[in-house]
Please model this.
Amino acid sequence: MKYLEIGTTVTLACSVNKCPRKRKYTVQSGDENTFPEGTVTVRMKCPWHTDGDFDSEQYYDKDGNEIG
Model:
């Protein structure tokens, strides 16, 4: 599987329904083998919704289709 290169920017968005929190994130050294190639948006629980329980990440391409 190919992954995004260091320096690529993705959007991190909360996966909780209707939560507006999102931010831009630049892939850094150490997580270059984390985001599958083609990822534009990563959905996961934001810090306000984790409550100590981290949900798995979901990766989406530019068309909104889930990757992997």
